[in-house]
User: What shape does this take?
Amino acid sequence: MLSKKVIFTFSPQNVERPVTYQLIKDYNLWINILQAKFEPSLGGKLVLELKGEDKQIKEGLNFVRQIGVGIELLEQEVLWDEKKCIDCGACISICPTGVLSLDKETFKLKFDYEKCIVCGNCVEACPLQAIKVIF
Ligand code: SF4
Ligand code: SF4
Assistant: This one.
């Protein structure tokens, strides 16, 4: 099973299309919504992770393109160097999808890669350059 992170950009004309529902129902894809911002009169953005067979993902993305929704594939990844990290927590509140948190018992930083949308906010926030975006 493949996993891809994508950004869908909706216009006011297609903002009300139930795209995620159709991807699940018609293309048998597993979907995890990482971030959503919608303003019906302006359009919106949806950041999500798709999981499924290669063919299903390709066909699902073709369908999304055909109805006029913009698609951007997130090909970058974020690398966290645990050895450099001093668990200061400066990167936590700046993360829009709740990837970063301090473990309640150990006070060590936890990094939930599955939720990361590679926005780069934490890279700039870290005083020790312990986080990098790689291409
Ligand atoms: S790049 Fe950093 S701030 Fe952005 S989503 Fe990933 S962990 Fe959070
Ligand atoms: S800002 Fe840098 S040093 Fe501080 S917790 Fe985050 S990754 Fe670790």
User: Anything to note?
Assistant: The radius of gyration is 17 Å. The first strand starts at residue 2 and ends at 10. The mean pLDDT is 92.
